[in-house]
Each structure stands twice: as structure tokens, then as C-alpha cells.
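FAQ

Q: What does a record look like?
A: Structure on top, sequence underneath. For example:
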């Protein structure tokens, strides 16, 4: 953490939580020292877009199963450093287990994702990963590059060893427990942007002003009207033909 200047030192957990709840910006607690998240990350459009893509893929892939996907607002407890951090994405199973004495500091993450940035890459690969390995429930740590299509997946084995697998363009990261496949190309599907620094072929997408080809979900399609028979049987009334039931779902 020598690359950044702590705004407070020798801070207890209780003091940190009181300061954080009253602050306008997020900070992390690391070894008794408090650091501003903004100063560390130096966020970019690429970073924020990739974070959103990661969350979208995880939400869709885990839908219908007992997992929750949390954004970078989720606080996570790091035992080895007696610290609290805000991973870019957090996945946990079942009920959230809060650290005693807190209501919002998660202790049972199953999967953590960090989208690397120039300001945090060394920390994410080094000290932070060292701290993450001390979380008993953690089984997966994923790092996503912001310079080129690269997803690095560390999986915890039965012998507590962490095994690295790297995936590039055209490949799929397959994670077990939770069982999910993350397509590298899907994560890096980005509209062309002159400000982007990611070395990837821009997706062929319609202009922003183009209307979608399908009906908008904001307005349901018109309800079909019953169709009446053009002729009636002799001595009887015309029979109405009932329309099929239409179910509108989002």
C-alpha cells in the first residue's frame, strides 16, 4: 500500500465504519489504515463498462439459483488484514453473513472479481489477493484486464492451493461452484469508442439513434381480438372463435 497515502492511520473497525457511513466517498480499511478508493482506482470508461458487463453475465448465468451478485458497493471483510474492501463484483450463496457488530460487511463471499486498472493492478495481484486468500468461504478470484481481452481465474483446490487458468479472445472461463461459463468475447463486447484503450475489435452495432427491430418491452403488444365466423350455421347463431391466450412476460 506504499503507492498511496493513507488519510487516517491506526483506525479501529468501529471508527472506520463510523467514518465511512458519514463520508461522501468510499474508503477501504487495510491494516489499520484508511485509503480513498477513488485515489487508488483512477476509474475509466473502460473499467466501468467491463464491470457492468461482468455483472450482467453473472446475473444472467446464475438466475434461478441461490446466488446473489453484488456491485462494488458491497463491503467485504478481509481477515488477514483486518480490512474492509469494495470488490468490483461479489457473488455469495444463500444468506449474507455479516461480520459481528456490523450489518453491511460480508464475510462469506464465494467469488470475487476485480477489473484491473493502472492504479490498482499491482495491489489486486499482490497484497489484495494475499488478503483474499484468508477468506475461508472464497473459492474463486477473477481478474479482468482493461488493456486487452484477458480473464485470469484463480480457483481454490481441496488442498487449499490456488490454481490459475488464463483465457483470451474466443475462449470461455468455466467456473465450478457456482457452475457458470464466462465468455471472454461477451465480456469484451464494446461499442466503438475513440477514448477506449482496450485492444479489441469493436463490435458491429447499430447507431444509438436506431430503433430496435423488436417490440419495446415498455409497452405490451396489442391484445388480439376474437375473430368471428363469417357465416352462421342454418338456424343457429354465429359462433365466435376464441383467440389463443397470450401471455406477456418480461
Amino acid at each position: 500500500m506504499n503507492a498511496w497515502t493513507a488519510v487516517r492511520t491506526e483506525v479501529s473497525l468501529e471508527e472506520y465504519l463510523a467514518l465511512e457511513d458519514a463520508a461522501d466517498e468510499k474508503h477501504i480499511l487495510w491494516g489499520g489504515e484508511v485509503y480513498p478508493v477513488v485515489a487508488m482506482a483512477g476509474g475509466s470508461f473502460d473499467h466501468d463498462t467491463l464491470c457492468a458487463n461482468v455483472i450482467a453475465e453473472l446475473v444472467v448465468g446464475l438466475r434461478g439459483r441461490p446466488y446473489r451478485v453484488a456491485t462494488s458497493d458491497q463491503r467485504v471483510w478481509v481477515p488477514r488484514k483486518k480490512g474492509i474492501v469494495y470488490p468490483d463484483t461479489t457473488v455469495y450463496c444463500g444468506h449474507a453473513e455479516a461480520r459481528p457488530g456490523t450489518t453491511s460487511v460480508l464475510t462469506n463471499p464465494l467469488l470475487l472479481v476485480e477489473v484491473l486498472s493502472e492504479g490498482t493492478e499491482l495491489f489486486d495481484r499482490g497484497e489484495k489477493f494475499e488478503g483474499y486468500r484468508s477468506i475461508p468461504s472464497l473459492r474463486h478470484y477473477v481478474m479482468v484486464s482493461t488493456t486487452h481481452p484477458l480473464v485470469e481465474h484463480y480457483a481454490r483446490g481441496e488442498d487449499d492451493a490456488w490454481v490459475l487458468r488464463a483465457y483470451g479472445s474466443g475462449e470461455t472461463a468455466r467456473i465450478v461452484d457456482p457452475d457458470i461459463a464466462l465468455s471472454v468475447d461477451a465480456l469484451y463486447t464494446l461499442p466503438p469508442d475513440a477514448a477506449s484503450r482496450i485492444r479489441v475489435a469493436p463490435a458491429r452495432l447499430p447507431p444509438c439513434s436506431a430503433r430496435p427491430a423488436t417490440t419495446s418491452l415498455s409497452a405490451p403488444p396489442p391484445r388480439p381480438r376474437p375473430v368471428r365466423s363469417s357465416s352462421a350455421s342454418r338456424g343457429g347463431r354465429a359462433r365466435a372463435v376464441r383467440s389463443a391466450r397470450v401471455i406477456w412476460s418480461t
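Q: Is there anything notable about this one?
A: The first strand starts at residue 27 and ends at 30.
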